[in-house]
Design a protein that fits this description.
There is one protein chain. The chain is an alpha+beta fold. About 35% of the residues lie in helices and about 25% in strands. It contains six helices and five strands, in the order H-H-H-H-H-E-E-E-E-E-H. Strands 4-3-2-1-5 form a five-stranded antiparallel sheet, with no helix packed on it. The longest helix has 13 residues, at about 145-155.
């Protein structure tokens, strides 16, 4: 189920007080992988660069802004990271963030999986103002894991 604004406010309150305000950056590095962040985002020397680079995210965003970007990924999206659907001449359909690579198009899907499509095989492309970042990425995490993830992002890469 989609996260509501009240759940967002509760999570923000938890991350701003008590143990959740401190978190453990070392454990947060593990959560960065568990929550699939690493499949699309670069953080220091770790991760993929298909989505926005998070290396300096602590200097660009306040906690509330970062939390909202994770909970509501389509709320504020730049053209560079919008989702595009590609239909191939063989009728295959792929959706995700696109990057060109020597006559091919790399499609980073919401699952974090990459698909390579020859540009000559593309029949149609359709852009969407929806983020390729899926909703609910924090849902499987415990409150402590969420605190650790934010501590990791706040602490910065090694």
């Amino acid at each position: 189920s989609p996260t509501s604004r009240s759940q967002s406010a509760d999570l923000l309150a938890n991350l701003s007080s008590g143990r959740s305000a401190t978190g453990d950056p070392v454990s947060g590095a593990v959560v960065f992988e568990k929550a699939q962040c690493i499949k699309c985002h670069r953080f220091g020397t770790r991760g993929e660069a298909m989505g926005p680079d998070l290396t300096n995210v602590r200097q660009r965003f306040q906690l509330k802004e970062l939390l909202e970007a994770i909970l509501f990924p389509s709320q504020s999206i730049t053209d560079q990271y919008e989702t595009t659907t590609i239909v191939t001449t063989a009728g295959q359909v792929y959706s995700g963030v696109l990057a060109a690579a020597g006559g091919q198009i790399v499609v980073l899907q919401a699952t974090g999986e990459k698909v390579l499509v020859d540009q000559s095989d593309v029949d149609e492309t359709v852009s969407s103002r929806t983020s390729a970042m899926p909703d609910g990425l924090l849902d499987p995490l415990s409150p402590d894991e969420i605190a650790d993830l934010f501590a990791y992002l706040k602490h910065g890469p090694e």
